[in-house]
Amino acid sequence: MADVTQPRSLGAMLTARRGGRSWHWTDVFTWTYLVFGVFLMFFPVVWLVLSSFKTPAGLLEFPPTLLPLGQIEQTVEGYDDPLLMFKVTMEDGSVRELAQVRRIGIIAQMVDPAVPGETIKVPIASREPIREFRVAWENYTRPLERFNFLTYLKNSVVVTTVATLVTLLINSMAAFGLSIYEFRGRNAVMLFVIGTLMIPITIILVPAYLVVTELGMVNTLWAVILPGAATPTGVFLLRQYMLTIPRDLIEAARMDRASEWSIYWRIVLPLSLPAIAVLAIFSVMWRWNDFLWPLIVLNRSEVYTLQIGLNAFQGELDVQWHYVLAMTVIALIPVTLVFAFLQRFITTGIASSGMK
Amino acid sequence: MTNALHKKLVLGVAALGLMAGNALAETELRMTWYNDGIEGEVMQGLLDKFEAANPDIKVTLDVVPYKAILESLPVQLAAGEGPDLARVTDLGGLSQYYLDLTPYISDAGYWKDNFGPFLKWLDPNGEAISGFMTQLTVTGPYVNKTLFEQAEVDMPGEGATWDDWAAASKAVADKLDIPIPMAWDRSGHRVAGPAISMGAKMFDADGKPALVDDGLKEMTQRLYDWHQDGTMAKELWGSVSGNQYLGANEDFANAQVVLYMSGSWQIPQFADKIGDAFDWWAVPAPCGPAACTGMPGGAALVALKTTEHPEEVGKLMDFLSAEENLAEFYGKTLFIPGHLGLAAGGVDFATDDPRAKHALETFAGAVPGISPIAFDLQGYVFNRVMFNALISRLGEAIVGEITLDEAYDRMEADVAKEIAEKERQ
Amino acid sequence: MAVSDNTSLSFGERLNAVFAWPVQLLFRLFEIPLSWVQRTIGIPRMPWIFLLPNLAFFGLFVVVPLFINFAYSLTGGAELFLQNRVYVGAEQYGYLMDCGSYLDANTCREDRFWKAVYNTIVFVFFQVSFMVLFSLITALILNQNIRARGFFRSVYFFPVLLSPVVVALIWKWILLRDGVLNAFLANFGIDKMLFFVDPAWSMFWAIFVSVWAHMGFYTLILLAGLQAIPPDLYEAAEMDGTKRERVFFRITLPLLWPNLLVVLVLALIKSVQIFDEVFVLTGGGPGTATQFIVQYIYNTGFTNQVQNFGLAAAASVVLGVVLFVLTLMQLAATRRKDG
Fold first, then answer.
1. CATH 1.10.3720.10 fits A139-353, yes or no
2. pLDDT in tens, B161-213
3. Given its phi and psi angles, is residue B275 left (phi above 0), alpha (psi -120 to 50 degrees) or beta?
4. What's the pTM?
5. CB distance from A140 to chain C under 8 Å?
6. How far is B250 from chain A (nearest CA, A)?
7. What domains can be seen in chain C, in order of their start residue?
8. Of C243, C18, C207, whose CA–CA distance to C120 is shortest?
9. Is B396 in Cβ contact with C288 (below 8 Å)?
10. Contact C304 B74 (CB under 8 A)
11. By the 8 A CB rule, do C292 and C210 touch?
12. Which residues in C lie closer than 8 A to residue B410 (C-beta atoms)?
């Protein structure tokens, strides 16, 4: 699993290929694919982040600018408010930088900041805004002031953490039961687990809501935590991993009169840590991004999760995109951090889990 | 469900302190709300005032995505899990869940005088007082006047027909190379007004829905043709399926559209987004042989039966519906008042933008001219069934999946099927 | 950058040091009651104790709703509670199946259901093919001895972290008429393309975006399989001077087959269930060109003014049966492979 064993020069890195043979077409293909892939995978996310710093007007612009820009304003003597700056092509072909006083129909009244006394009339088609790099922080700060961001964040963190812990516990217990023992009904249970793998939550939304209502859990975080805790994917993944644990270990422990419970948590669980880390990442991701289900079972703002909060900027007739984008970026940060933290387990974890 | 399990869960929940709400001595009211713009902030300001005057009542505003109002709220209400108050748009459809406030408000006469026609929308078959319109809307077109000036095309005047406007917009767009001459919101509600102008009756002699008639066909045929000849861009009506709403507000704000058929609710955001970039101008609803009408509509704040504190809800509704408070609300949000007294007296709108002021006047002035058929349609419980059938099938015809005639048959079948399902006992 | 076993061990130890104490205490607390249970019922019945919590949650939140759902499919009306609904027998199913010809959705009473079925078939076929193909290529490339492999793996996995709604929003933003892709194409003198107005383009982008978002997951499964192939097989092949293409078809592909099968089945199941991404991306349009079966169910049960739970439930039961048959076929296929 050692990725890179010794440091190599940049040249060696760029020409890295198997053996010392000449370039095979697959080497060219590999590097083209990788470079293009990085662009294709990253660019949309980078674009999202850049766009989240644009003003509403900046978002609508075509052709879109890469960086967030804002029009320069300048205070001109004799005018109370700062005026917007334009680059104007004059009739004689010369280009001047003028401030706009007002626009009437298709004629703009402009003034030269150096000569504030004299106004110049310019057709609007011949002026172009002068802009500079400017970040619209208000996309972030305004919603954070306006809605209970901290409450939503806290709820999302609680839901994600508790749900992930519950999921890890009950899924690993079930996987232990299904992998270590031979018993009647095991295949039936496995079939059942695989069967539930196929049911999208969307189609049982209403009946599941009825169950939650009967249990009196509506508007509590439990309504979001518990229904998704018994993930079939998790049971499946952990079981496949536990099947690879040598039976001798377990038999030896039984000889030492260890209880079944302690075999589970003292032996099998520590050995399954990589697979558990993988499931933890998935669980965090699912819960953090969950939207449709919380939307139905939570309708009080003190229990809202971040996903509901950020979607509240989608109205009936207007979507406040600048806020939606900014809040999306904020919601992205925690999963990215968790991913960066547990990332190494993803490859090793699935690798050794075998998934066969 | 077993009772013991239920109790255990509730106990566990309470013990871990994850439970919602706090058990203070004061009464807490919950209001489910959605936002298109700043109206939530304005409402919060009013609620703060109310709480200051009534220290024993606390009102919490739960702002949700509009999707939750449309899709989750009906399920929650049916399950008896709704809030105390909610801002809704399916005015008649949710009627069975509204609380009749008559015993809890101080002056029913004031409500009847000022909200009369809209109370009917909330309770089509009775006399109940359940809420008021947070926003009255009227559909109608906006034009980019600056583009007309640049293209040196005259804007059609008073009494112009849809054909006149379509031709003029096309002329402007062709001259200036604007991608979309005319755009309409993708919504059956938007089509209904012009269809009524063309002579559509919407109901038969017995008051039963009769969506497809010659008047409607007049309008839909035009819409179909405009999409084929490029007067309207397919990317709005042709690009999504079913009854999904899609607006051209962003394209219009970006000067990509000459004429945009939408409604009064766009005013605050156009004032904000377009500002001084060009002259956006609301024009009166174009005419047909039968009328020159838009559709009324809007959102209402209603009291719900699920509340355990009807007295307090009544108190709150009295406060919010008071003339000075509503004047503040409509004035700050730039909404057309759904209060007859304020509509007659005029509201002092908080804007200096001459374009916004003109648009507000235009739309408010259009209210008296709204066709009675349009009013009845807005008050009809299953109007959304009709709107949805209209737009989804017309959309399919426009992209060529079915013919217009097939679309008409499907519209009628859709309406009949949904209403039959609802009325099945 | 270098991820050696050394650091991951110490990382595990550090993790242990922080979290182990309370966790151990928790597990230790369970020790006493569970030892008693074990003495009472005996080891052979212990697996059921381990399965109990998971099965209880399954039962409560999946099986019970499934039964309610089935019951819904036999009723009509718009009431939420079953006891208030009208029993209609198989009427909803009959309604779904009422077709002049099953090959032409326009002759069906519920034309949208059948259009959704056909769209789903087309989508699943192409999406699964591309998903398997591209995750295989990516896995093969990432399995090579290239520099910064950990970085590249993370890059390809990253989109898996994004919520479907975010994925769709980002791409929609890019693909709009005034989006960045059209701005890019304009540099080459290509006119603005209206991707979501053309049924073929809409389907293409629906497939593309879903492959983009989920490929990382399947790549990892295949990568795991590739790493399980003993390296000496490759070394032997290289000594013999076997061509790489031949090595691929003779060694890699056969040994990777079990993992490919897992990918195929998971991708198939997920593909049939596709909903949020495409819904946000294309809205199911133009017309009904990218409306898929789960979206049909959602629309019928939720977004229509009259929420028709009965018809939606009937459609979901049909979907469930189809998925179940698909899974059984997969199980049969793996059995044959194993035996």
1. yes
2. 999 999 999 999 999 888 899 999 999 999 999 999 999 999 998 888 999 99
3. left
4. 0.85
5. no
6. 7
7. 1-41 (no CATH), 44-338 (1.10.3720.10)
8. C207
9. yes
10. no
11. no
12. 111
